Amino acid sequence: MQAITRRLKGAVAAALTVASLTVAAPAAAQDVDFSGKTIEWWIPFSEGGGSDVWARFFAPYLSRHLPGNPNVIIRNVPGGGSITGTNEFAARARPNGLQLLGTSGSTQFPFLLGDTRVRYDYADFEPVLVSPTGGVVYIPASFGVEDASQLGQIADQELVYASQGATSLDLVPMLAFEVMGLNVRHVFGMTGRGDGRLAFERGEATIDYQTSSAYLTNVVPLVEAGTAVPLFSYGVLDSEGNVQRDPSFPEIPHFIEAYEMMHGEAPSGVAFDAYMAFFSSGFAAQKPAMLPGGTPENIVQAYRDAFAAAVEDPELIANAGEVLGEYNQATGDEVVPLYEVATTIDPEAREWVRTYLSENHSVMLD
Amino acid sequence: MVVDAILSALSTVLTFQHIQYLMIGVVVGLIVGVLPGLGGIVGMSLLLPFVYGMEPTLALAMLIGILPVLSTSDTFASILMGIPGSSASQATILDGFPLAKKGQAARALSAAFSASFIGGLFGALVLTVSVLVARPLILSFGAAELFMLTMFGLSMVGVLSGSSLAKGVAACAAGLALGAVGAAPATGEYRMEFGTLYLMNGLPLVIVGLALFAVPEIGDLLRRNSSIAENGGTLGAGWKQGLKDTWLYKWMSLRLAGLGALLGMIPGLGGSVVDWIAYGHVVQTSRDKSQFGKGDIRGVIAVESTTASKDGGGLVPTLLFGIPGSGAMAIFLAGMVLIGLQPGPAMVSTNLDVTYTIVWSLALANVLGTALCIMLAPAIAKITIVRYPLVAPFMILVITFAAFQPNRSLYDLVALVVLGIVGILLRRFGWPRPAFLIGFVLATQSERYLYQALQFSGWSFFTRPIVLVIAAIIILSVGFSMYSQRKSGTKIEVEGKSAATLTQSMWPQIAFTLAVMALFVFTFFETINLSQLGRVFPVSIAVVGFGAALLVLWPQIRGNRASGAVFDAESKEVSDQLNAMTPLKYIGWLVGFVATIALVGYFLAVVLFFVAFLRLVAKSGWLQVLILTLLGAGLLLVMTSALNLTLPEGLLQQHYYDRLPWPLVS
């Protein structure tokens, strides 16, 4: 945790320096004019996925707030679990501000894990927006556990989690359960979190999580009916890199609080560092929008300004509900530090996760 | 409350504006449905960009409008051209296309549309009632029950094997092996992907379906060098006959519509196997099987009423649980989220009026879609009397365009051609392609659900009541089918007639059987070193498939020409009476086309292919070449810009990416 916080603080300082430099040249962004141009927003997933919806939601506001009001279209480049499209963008996109990339945790994870098929480097891209998301872990009420402080009661009992795969976004709950000391069996092959929820409702799975909007619409009724109990939310990162409660669920403790409730002390160690890296990448900074490396500073700044103005747009705020939730969208100067947390990992933590995955789930990443 | 919701929904649906937007969806669905290979995913993707910011009920109307007309209009390609109109209508080909060849296209189409109409309305009716009570039903289908349903699907191989059960089992095992390519559901290990990113998620169903059915059919039609309707020009008659047919089999049609709605409602099975289950079911339960595969109208009616009703059923899990039953539903779900609707239990309480608006829109769109299809049918059906070499380049354009939708990659086209060659050989040697396809479709699901069922409840899952009920249904239906087959002594023909085998050499079929066996050997050795959970499925398939292939090989080696396993559609007599477009030349054209794409990219290759093909094969004059090429290129450009696609690129694009204009690069 400390290592990450330190790195984050360094990044914040660096970002502030960059910001102060750019403040000195506000005219630069004014030179940019996209009138009559078409901007392609690459999404390495197929139509209808979470990232696609996210980009389609933002596209009209990006168009409205970029200088010259260009036409913004979404280009879906699916395949290869989002590695294909991102590889192609990294090789192809020109630094002229006409191509933008939006990825997700499932694109960041193979990069963080050192998957050899990855041919993109997040350090090369210029981030202009980072969107967080959140989720809540819950268990059936039948265990008699009322909150995380009573989790010790079921520490020796085997729980079942319906997972989409060991290297999917479900890596985050896997690491969370591991750090927490829960005994969980992962059943793979689910095709979405909805499958997992169905398995939970059928009684096949005995621990599950849902992302914020799915939790609110589909799990809250179960909690109200007294059949499910929320344990913890993943939480969000504040600008200092500390985990805070999720604004969608202010009454539910976040992971670190839940850990303290169960164990009486704060979590630490390499497993926890690994959890933090993947939590940041999979939730706290799940969806970054990026320009290709080498894009001129004034264009990057124009995009950052446009997204900053977009998230202040009253119309966007009024419609954000289902797509963006209650989360603070990182724009302007907040982008770089959050982006760095989401796209970097301590080598020791990376090695630990790789070993963990290969020993427990025979995942080979080479 | 329910009645209020139904009535308020009805008054919403019947406003002019609502019908107007519904009509947009219907028209888009019709166009996409008529073009072979493109399905709901493409239609929904076309409209998705417009959804944001629209009035919610109008946006829903527009998206819903696509669904029913798709399962009606994809029939055109299946019946008229023998090309799967979409992944959901592959089984329509088996009887629909032979009818078209006999010059009964009009009858087949009108029977299909009326069956589709009944099925669609019935699906909407089921949705009206079941959306209120379906929650416990859906929750009672866990991994174990889903596994049994996949077994039910696989049991259809028995009736779809035609003259040789061993061939059916071996073809199905080959399909299962192909479906096992990519990440193992249990462990995420990659199997048989040759280290490529392209294969890591397995091969897309669209490609396999087109390769197995469309590629061989186009080749065969080219070879005959005539129009599709063999006795030329008689389309007009038969429209009434088709309606009479549907009326005659109305109870069967309703029964299958019920089956479709039920199967559609269960999330996790996927829409693309429902048509095969329907077809298998009607064959199993029919006393006289002699005409199936040669143009039995029941085959068409059964499949169409089932596929039309499954959309209504499929909306239930989408609305109640937010779990999309198909790719098109996934995009529909995204549309709902974009207009601020999150599916969930609220859809049957506070949002019940929205739910019923969707249901009524579905019903109305079904009526409008059927009406449009009937109006357009005479014009579209004229394609069957056009000289086929003039149609073929358009077909090849559309199927290659459809094939690269899933990954937008050149490898999609390579996969299409390679599997297309497999399809040509399967057809020639009488290996039932439906069995192969069922195996492919159910490969991932059967493995995934077996593994999950074992993980969730151990071997005791076999004692769960619904599992036992499905097991009983499987045993009864297979038993009944075998009994009636023995009694009547007829078997269905899924691969047409074998040519006179008396005079012909046996080595080509023996060579192909050996190649199939080599595939199983490869599967075995490629997966034996994986972890226990990753290998158990492919290794078992390899063993079963190898055994079945041995049973096919034995009579072939012995030269027992009376055996059902001996089959070769090629013979000297056949090849003599046909024109010069031999299968080898046809494959050469396809390979040449893909190679040209690899050099100069898709757009230029299409233009070159059109000109060369029309000049050399169709022997067109330059004016005709010009007009048809412009038409083809125009069609491609419209589709590309509407869908905002990247077209597959070649060496030219790799080197001069920055200097080329659209559409040479995209």
Characterise this structure.
The complex is a heterodimer of chains A (366) and B (666). Chain A is 46% helix and 15% strand. By secondary structure, chain A is an alpha/beta fold. In chain A, the strands form four sheets. Chain A has a five-stranded mixed beta sheet. A three-stranded antiparallel beta sheet of chain A has the order 8-5-9. In chain A, strands 6-7 form a two-stranded parallel ribbon. In chain A, helix 10 (270-284) crosses helix 14 (335-343) and helix 10 (270-284) crosses helix 15. Chain A is globular, with a radius of gyration of 20 Å. Residues 1-27 of chain A have low confidence and may be disordered. Chain B is an all-alpha fold and 666 residues long. Chain B has two domains: 2-558, no CATH class; 583-656, no CATH class. Chain B is built from 27 helices and two strands. The chains are: A alpha/beta (366), B mainly alpha (666). Chains A and B meet through helix 3, strand 2, helix 4, helix 7 and helix 8 of A and helix 3, helix 15 and helix 19 of B.
According to DSSP, the number of beta strands of chain B is 2
Largest sheet of chain B: 2 strands, antiparallel
> Which homologous superfamily in CATH is the superfamily of the largest domain in chain A?
Bordetella uptake gene, domain 1
Write the H/E string of chain A, N to C: HHEHEHEHEEEHEHEHEEEHHEHHHHH
Report the top-level CATH class of the largest domain in chain A. Alpha Beta
Task: Give me the secondary-structure category of chain B.
Answer: mainly alpha
Distance from N terminus to C terminus of chain B (CA atoms, Å) equals 52 Å
Q: Helical element count of chain A? A: 15
| CATH fold description of the largest domain in chain A | D-Maltodextrin-Binding Protein, domain 2
**What is the helix tally of chain B?**
27
Backbone CA Rg of chain A: 20 Å
Number of domains of chain A: 2
Indicate the percent of residues in helices of chain B.
Answer: over 70%
Strand content of chain A: 15-25%
Name the helicity range of chain A: 40-55%
In the predicted model, the low-confidence regions of chain A spanning at least 5 consecutive residues are 1-27
Sheet/helix structural class of chain A: alpha/beta
List segments of chain B where confidence is low: pLDDT < 50 over at least 5 consecutive residues.
Answer: none
Largest interface: A-B, 59 and 59 residues
Q: β content of chain B, as a range?
A: under 5%
